[in-house]
Amino acid sequence: MDGNRRFAKELGLSWEAGHIFGKEKIEEVLDWCFDLGIPVLTIYAFSTENFKRSEKEVKTLMMLFKEELDQAKGDSRIHKNKVRIRILGHLESLPKDIQQSAQSIMDMTKTYKTYHLNIALAYGGREEIIQAIQHMASDIKKGKLKVKDISQKTVSSYLYTSGLPDPDLILRTSGEERISNFLLWQLAYSELYFSDVYWPALQKRDFLQAIRTYQHRKRRFGK
Length: 223
Hints:
This protein is an alpha/beta fold. Helices cover about 45% and strands about 15% of the residues. α1 (about 5-10) crosses α2, α2 (about 15-35) runs parallel beside α3 and α3 runs parallel beside α5 (about 95-110). It is globular, with a radius of gyration of 18 Å.
């Protein structure tokens, strides 16, 4: 979800307003997924690199994240549509109140299976892989895992996304055409789609265009 600040700047608004518009767009896109029957949506909300932004911006973003997580607990759409929410990332690096809100909504929705909303928060693809390697090494040391038994399936089971399918489509907004440390293991055979539209300005027609483009591509799955 890229382009919140540039969207606000072009409209003569504060960067804070851009992030607020960006947050509201998430809810709209989730509704589009309900309409289209798309069962899994993963959004890249905050990367490990984003901690390098100004203290004021990081604090504002954390406030918005907590607000969104707390609102989700009482959101009838989440419970009506049986949406399981998972927070992917190094949660220990987040403020305690965010950690508590994240754990609360994950516990509340853990039995839901119809839809999956994954929020990548304090997330980095390389960090995720490193952490998986560390956990595998620890289990090897404890005798819980044998080196000869390590496979792609094994590695996947140690990632934040364990139990989830790899993404079919990666959509990035704002004209940037790079992956930026997102789901590096999982996107091995994903289709990539880059839109010039800023995230807060994304319309359903833009979303549908990305899906149509995906549908017209010949999926090869590494063959």
